[in-house]
Amino acid sequence: xxxxxxxxxxxxxxxxxxxxxxxxxxxxxxxxxxxxxxxxxxxxxxxxxxxxxxxxxxxxxxxxxxxxxxxxxxxxxxxxxxxxxxxxxxxxxxxxxxxxxxxxxxxxxxxxxxxxxxxxxxxxxxxxxxxxxxxxxxxxxxxxxxxxxxxxxxxxxxxxxxxxxxxxxxxxxxxxxxxxxxxxxxxxxxxxxxxxxxxxxxxxxxxxxxxxxxxxxxxxxxxxxxxxxxxxxxxxxxxxxxxxxxxxxxxxxxxxxxxxxxxxxxxxxxxxxxxxxxxxxxxxxxxxxxxxxxxxxxxxxxxxxxxxxxxxxxxxxxxxxxxxxxxxxxxxxxxxxxxxxxxxxxxxxxxxxxxxxxxxxxxxxxxxxxxxxxxxxxxxxxxxxxxxxxxxxxxxxxxxxxxxxxxxxxxxxxxxxxxxxxxxxxxxxxxxxxxxxxxxxx
Length: 442
What we know:
It is built from 20 helices and no strands. The two termini are 35 Å apart. 76% of the residues lie in helices and 0% in strands.
């Protein structure tokens, strides 16, 4: 066993930084510009919000990695939450991920995939959801062929994430533009009810693009020197992501006026058309579609295993069905359950609505993770911590304040969306008590 552990510790700093960046960069950078522009109504404030989102994510990543390195167990955040707050809170997190986070993530990516297909081929908007369902369904079928096939497919599509980003940044910065953008906001803009409201709504939108940081601590077990290289990898990787996001959005705002970006889910395609011409724009859009498809594969692959894992503990209704595997050892019933929920959500809400709700819900638990870092320092001081968050407790406090700000401002700016997310999470409570009682009886 010790030999196996030693063999895993082969990763050095540069591949670790690449892993962090590959984990976080997804479809959000291409399609959240419209939501941020709608929330802020101002080019300068839009750039500021992307920078602030990056800094909060950096603090979050550095904080959450302490628990990832100290408790390197399968289940990740579920394990941290249970260790700090008990089984009920851990169950609610699992429930929220099964019912809201993964299905809404898949649904949102399906919608944006369908939107790009409709615009690429000049189809009727009525084809948006059917195209999205086709994408979601085909990815599910790929995953039924086994984790090896799904993993290989993920590796291929990862490359396509970076090509459109690199081309848009390089050639976009060389284009003459009529919009001047600075990194500091002057005012909130015409589309908001005030500075803080616009800041909060814009920040919530950016958090979808930065989401995925919770997984960066998972590389701790593969690093040669985790205490030295993990904070460097997180800081370098997330800082690099922030710079890429700032540059991409600078190009968007440099190429198109703010009112052409606000509410426009095809901003990336419009910018590509303007920079590269009609044919070049189409090729870039195809690259973006492959990137979305790959991200969709990643969420499908990991998402279907969560109801399966909870069912193994008999924590969900119909657990005996959810644990069934096909001949490729894939939890296909859990996958079908996730697929049905995702398709249902595609008919309920659009891209921004779904992503804002899932980010609000998951950030409730992210914030609890930040608090857990401080809590476990006091309740379990003897816990071996190969990596400790730097500048403790300043960085955890920044992460906590950032999380609280996101949650409070969402409640103020989009009360019913926030309450829907809270309600869907709390529906898990009666199921928790029912399954606990059922398991005791059995």
